[in-house]
Amino acid sequence: MSSIIEHPLVTEKAMDDMDFENKLQFVVNPDATKPEIRDEVEERFEISVENINTQITMNGKKKAVVRLSEDDDAQEVASRIGVF
Known about the structure:
By secondary structure, the protein is an alpha+beta fold. It is 35% helix and 30% strand. The protein has three helices and four strands; from the N terminus they run βαβαββα. The chain has helices at 12-21, 34-45, 74-80, and strands spanning 5-8, 23-28, 49-56, 62-68. A four-stranded antiparallel beta sheet has the order 1-2-4-3. A hairpin with a 5-residue loop joins β3 and β4. The N and C termini lie far apart (28 Å).
């Protein structure tokens, strides 16, 4: 099976979510389920996931918005994984 997470999503909205909501956004495999996304994010980035919302974008990609637990800082994680 291919990787569940394709890449982090870096948009103005994603940055606002990261700064104010402690959320990270990823483009994920269209077939991935929320539990699979949760497991992959927690394992790969060593963080705790509180909540996941997914949606299919207009260009047919699947986007996952991942809210981190209060113990994890989205900005710190983002810089660690090379978002900026």
